[in-house]
Amino acid sequence: MPSKPKQFATDLSSSRVSVGDDIRAIRRLRGLTLADLAKQLNRSTGWMSQVERGQNEPSIRDLRKIAALFEFPLSFFFRNHDAPADERGVVVRKASRTTLGTGESGLVEELLSPDLSGDFEMIRSVFAPGADSGKVPARPTQDGGYVISGLLDLWVFGKKHELKAGDSFQFQNSVYRWRNPGSEPAEVIWIISPPAY
Amino acid sequence: MPSKPKQFATDLSSSRVSVGDDIRAIRRLRGLTLADLAKQLNRSTGWMSQVERGQNEPSIRDLRKIAALFEFPLSFFFRNHDAPADERGVVVRKASRTTLGTGESGLVEELLSPDLSGDFEMIRSVFAPGADSGKVPARPTQDGGYVISGLLDLWVFGKKHELKAGDSFQFQNSVYRWRNPGSEPAEVIWIISPPAY
DNA sequence: AAAATGAAATTATTGCCAAATATTTCATTT
DNA sequence: AAATGAAATATTTGGCAATAATTTCATTTT
Q1: Cβ contact (<8 Å) for A113 and B144?
Q2: Which residues in chain B touch residue A168, judged by CB atoms under 8 angstroms apart?
Q3: Cα–Cα distance for residue pair B130/B151, rounded to 1 Å
Q4: Which residues, listed in sequence order, are joined to residue B147 by a DSSP beta bridge?
Q5: Which domains are seen in chain A, by residue range?
Q6: What is the distance between the alpha carbons of residues A17 and B61, in angstroms, rounded to a whole number?
């Protein structure tokens, strides 16, 4: 008798980017191992591995913990729930972007990349009038951006640059600071390589 | 008597990104060695090395040849001639972007990155109404983009995606094709990693 | 029976070294 | 003074072993 393939309650592998893939991506973003993360969740490494490979469903409770741990909205894991299957992993519609970050006031960031497993991530940032980042610690990444509208002051390598719509920038491993000196929101497309959220 | 530093007609190393750095970047983009390029210019490898390190000035004639060889506009090398020194290599002003490419009709591409030596390059593309790329051969790169305005049909992995303002995409190593199905120009910010022009 | 564990087996990553390529230097030639 | 070309240096590439991470799966727990 031929052995039949193992069956699971839900085939989570049908969508191009599953919850497990997302967990794996954000875990690696923070440099944790399966064992590290499993420990935080009081689960075994084996279980964690299965979850990330879509062979096992994490509980909503687990997902919550993971989201909180990495400061991602829980909804991140469901962002492409209702996207057509063949768009998943490739296209992100304006209406279904994930909002990132800790809700720092004066800044709204939306993920334009379908997932975080690529070589770079694309973010749409909207800076409120007067908003100021203060010093942002240097990261081992390369950052670039394009100002779609509004004004943005950007300090890099100790030098202030006054940017306006149509201007762009790119820099590496620098402490930086931004501020919206205008009275309108500033809209910027921001690129980070490798992804570092 | 202390030996004084060597002097050259022009100190090309003052600007953060010199002509030599540009030549080096675009040469590597195409995977050529110093010897390869030198040969094409009927020069020695040593001379080529000196030019790229700003210890030697290439003639305008040489620059022309290089530009033609790589299909860059000659003006590329002078794009930040009149930018403040401390902006060079970091900021690109709307007014002083370089136009890239071979002037393929229906497509205008401008380089938003200060130079081509980073991990990714940012390009602003404007697609004319009705313009169609036809099949673009796969490259060993990762591509992403954000539609600022207009409409763009994008074929990736054999599937057509109809994008409009606010939508974004990201894909890897794929043959693709784009087309502007609308009656207005489509403006897209395009990211390529690593740079591959 | 289904879910989870934990230890063994497998796979992936890292550090090192040698070989091959590529680049720089510099004494000499044009 | 500019350019060359060969020697010196530096960088990249490809194994290979050691370490770390992940997957598998027989067993235990719920």
Answers
A1: yes
A2: 91-92, 112-113, 122, 124
A3: 10
A4: B188
A5: 19-78 (1.10.260.40), 97-193 (2.60.120.10)
A6: 52
B197 contacts B167 by C-beta, under 8 angstroms: no
Q: Which of B64, B57, B66, B59 is nearest to B23 (CA)?
A: B66
Distance, angstroms, CA B120 to C1' C21? 25
Mean pLDDT of chain A: 89
Which residue of B168, B174, B178, B192 is the best one to mutate when testing the A interface, meaning the one whose CB has the most A CBs within 10 A?
A: B168
Strand D contact residues in chain A (85-144), C-beta within 7 Å: none
Chain A residue closest in CA terms to B115: A170
* Closest to A44 in 3D by CA, of B160, A52, B196: A52
Please check the confidence at residue B8 and state whether its pLDDT lies above 70.
no
> DSSP string spanning A38-53?
HHHTT--HHHHHHHHT
* Rounded Cα–Cα distance for residues B106 and B162 (Å): 18
Q: What does the pLDDT read at residue A16?
A: 61
Q: What percent of chain A has pLDDT over 90?
A: 79
CB atoms within 10 A of CB A118: 22
pLDDT higher than threshold 60 for residue B173: yes
The Cα of A142 is separated from the nearest Cα of chain B by a number of Å equal to 7
- How many angstroms separate the CA of A73 from the C1' of C11? 32
Beta-strand pair B151-156/B159-164:
antiparallel
Residue A4 reports pLDDT greater than 70 = no
The confidence band for B29, taking pLDDT boundaries of 50, 70 and 90, is: very high
Closest CA to A32 of A41, A15, A101: A41
Among A102-111, A137-146, B177-186, top mean pLDDT goes to: B177-186
